[in-house]
Amino acid sequence: GGLVVKNVCFIGAGYVGVPTAAVIALKNPFLRVTVVDRDEFRIRRWNSAHLPIDESGLSEVVRITRDGSKACSMDAVEPSLPRQNGGASIPARRPNLIFTTQTAKSIAEADMIFICVNTPTKMTGLGKGYATDMTAVESVVKEVAANAKTDAILVEKSTVPCRTAKLVQDILETFRPRARMQVLSNPEFLSEGTAVKNLLYPDRIIIGSSNTVQGRRAGAALAKLYSTWVDRSKILGTHVWSSELAKLVANAMLAQRISSINSISAICETTGADVHEVAKSVGLDPRIGSQFLKAGLGFGGSCFRKDIGSLVYLARSLGLEEVAEYWNQVLVINDLQRSRFARNVIQRLNGTLVGKKIAILGFAFKKNTSDTRESLAVDIIRALLNERPAEIAIFDPWCSPANIQRELASLGNHACIKVYTDPYQGCADSNAILVVTDWDSFRTPSPADERNVVKQPQKSDTAAFSTLAAPTQSASTFTGVEMEQYLPEPACPENCPECKTSFIGFNPDEHLEWARISYHMRKPKLVFDGRDVVDAAEMERVGIKVEALGRAD
Ligand code: NAD
Ligand code: UGA
Questions:
Q1: Is the CB of residue 192 below 6 angstroms from any atom belonging to ligand 2?
Q2: Where are the catalytic residues (predicted)?
Q3: Which of 14, 189, 324, 381 can bridge 316 by disulfide, Cβ–Cβ 3.0-4.6 Å?
Q4: Phi-psi bin for 192: left (phi > 0), alpha (psi -120 to 50), beta?
């Protein structure tokens, strides 16, 4: 028979660890899922109403799995959906998701352990700027070697260099000579902002294992956890090296498309072609496809830069200099976007920012996330600071000012940088506004936008909950439980000062009033649109001149 997995442990309560653990717990109600982290503050918040990460749908999944839920009617969860099985109900469920800092104990109890710690780029030493910093992975594997059951299965969920499984196996053998632990690779492909949706409806699940009977048995045990909600045809078993490399290649190929179209945006600005028209024209060829062809300030976020760096380092260490250079060029073009943008801002303001105020709209690396890591704004601000502006004003509808300040720490202390929670105050008296994040609320509303309300993706994403609370295993234990209406509660009070900024003067569900902003700007009223967010003709009506990336004047 197959291996029986009753207890799993996720190490690393971050953007990947918690959403993955929570969805696996949701879909396997009889599995006990423990998430550990060494960061006590983070664990305390996962145990509170104030979750440390904003992801659409995550608070609902965490609440159901962490706190358990009473039996409920499906209609109450998602009233807009067609009634399933004549309005079938969701059985009650006991809590099966636990957050704790007790690493050793949780590892000791687990049949399967997922490594979900961060794997950033090394900042010093051998391979700095490219190689992966394996410190966290190494320390976790040592803890596993010291505490795990002899036949526990160790799963690499973090993105790691190709052949890490060998390194892991070597550490295990050194510190636990007689253990029979199997190492699997199961990379994660979710995107921030849509994590829960991506996990509920994955394109594929890749499970890499060693090519032995034990390896394949371990892989099958992991596949079983997914098969409670993912079609078997989407679960692909590979060799462990292929799986590790496939994750880096997936990110490199996605980022490569962005750099490809961004390289064309530079040509457009001097020829008069419009990069968005070019992208649309080429993307209509189904062999090319339309996704990931949006030109802009380049890719930010915690993964693309570091994963391509890791691929470049791998190629270099194999002596494949041309291959390394090929992928490195994706990073070169990516950085070029921000330097070209900053240079254009300075030139259009007559080559000097002295005495001027520059407002930056958006700090998150993309819309619908409050993650401030690898913000595209930082490179731009660094370039502008050299010109000694009077003020750089930053506003983001979701990122907390404290996180923004922390991310800016690498720039040193600059009294001229201010973070605002009201966009109108942030933009008042500015000589130029830079649109850095593609937030819908920054868009000039189109006639299709009802009144002034932003179409929030969160609303439609809740369709993902059609299958959300329905356990797929037999729920016979719960028969006879009194049926009650399941009433979703907000995870925390609105405008909770613990979780988010209280949005004084701005509701992120509404469009910015550009006319109001224009009225308080200094001349020339310039908006530099780095994300194809505003409509130049609409803006001209309110007296603003738009400089758009990838389009000539
Ligand atoms: P994160 O920084 O949000 O979370 C990592 C967590 O690990 C932190 O809470 C940290 O405290 C904890 N940690 C570090 N060392 C530890 C230790 N020794 N013991 C216990 N806990 C420890 O990182 P993330 O964004 O979730 O990324 C994790 C991994 O997943 C990375 O390898 C990343 O490349 C990969 N990944 C991320 C995404 C994404 O969208 N963020 C998507 C796919 C893959
Ligand atoms: C990315 C991948 O999309 C995920 O599949 C992967 O799992 C993840 O990295 C990871 O390994 O961490 P994420 O970084 O969350 O996810 O966000 P993306 O939506 O990919 O956007 C990355 C950056 O590229 C953003 O700054 C975005 O604005 C930019 N982008 C994206 C463009 O400039 N143009 C595009 O056409 C698409």
A1: yes
A2: 303
A3: 324
A4: beta
* 122 in a known ligand binding site: no
DSSP class of 194: S
User: What pTM value is reported for the model?
Assistant: 0.91
Is omega for the bond preceding 445 within 30 degrees of 0, making it cis? no
- Please report, to the nearest 10 degrees, the dihedral formed by the alpha carbons of residues 373, 378, 379, 382 taken in order: -150
- pLDDT at residue 186, as a whole number: 98
Ligand 1, pocket-test mutation among 117, 159, 160, 190, most atoms within 8 A of CB: 117
Distance CA 269, CA 435 (A): 18
Name every residue whose Cβ is closer than 8 Å to that of residue 131 and which is 6 or more positions away in sequence.
Answer: 121, 122, 161, 309, 310, 313
* Helix H or strand E segment including 515: helix 514-519
Which pLDDT score is estimated for 78? Answer: 45
Looking at residue 473, what is its pLDDT?
38
N-term to C-term CA, the chain = 68
**pLDDT at position 81:** 41
Of the candidates 278, 280, 302, the one whose C-alpha atom is nearest the C-alpha of residue 191 is 302
Please choose from 303, 368, 403 the residue to mutate so as to test ligand 1's pocket, defined by most ligand atoms within 8 A of CB.
303
Question: Is 160 close to ligand 2, i.e. is its CB under 6 Å away?
Answer: no
So what's the pLDDT on residue 2?
Answer: 76
Minimum-distance ligand 2 atom for the alpha carbon of 15? 12
Rounded distance between C-alpha atoms, residue 319 and residue 314, angstroms: 9
For the record, the structure tokens of 453 come out as 């309300």
Which residues are designated catalytic?
303
Distance from C-alpha of 71 to C-alpha of 479, rounded to nearest angstrom: 10
Pick the closest to residue 340 from 379, 367, 293 (CA basis).
379
Alpha carbon 452 to its chain's center: 28
DSSP string, 396-459: -SSS-HHHHHHHHGGG---TTEEEES-HHHHHTT-SEEEE-S--GGGSPPPTTS-TTB---HHH
How many whole angstroms separate alpha carbon 44 and alpha carbon 32? 19
15 in Cβ contact with 364 (< 8 Å): no
